[in-house]
Amino acid sequence: MPFYESRDRVPLYYEAMGSGDPVVFVHGLTANHRHFKYQVGALKETHRTVAYDLRGHGASAVPDHGLNISALAYDLKELIDYLDVSPATLVGWSLGAHVIFEFIEQFGSGDIQKIAIIDMAPRLMKQDAAGDAEPWAFGLRGFSGVFGDFGHEDNTKMMAAITESNWRDFSRNLVERLQDRKLTKNGGFDYEAEFKGKADMDWLFEQAMYNRSHVIASFWASMIVRDYRRLLDSIRLPVLITYGEGSNYYPEENSRYMHDRLKHSFLVSFPDCGHAPHLQDPERFNRILIDFMMERL
Question: What does pTM read for this prediction?
Answer without folding.
Answer: 0.97
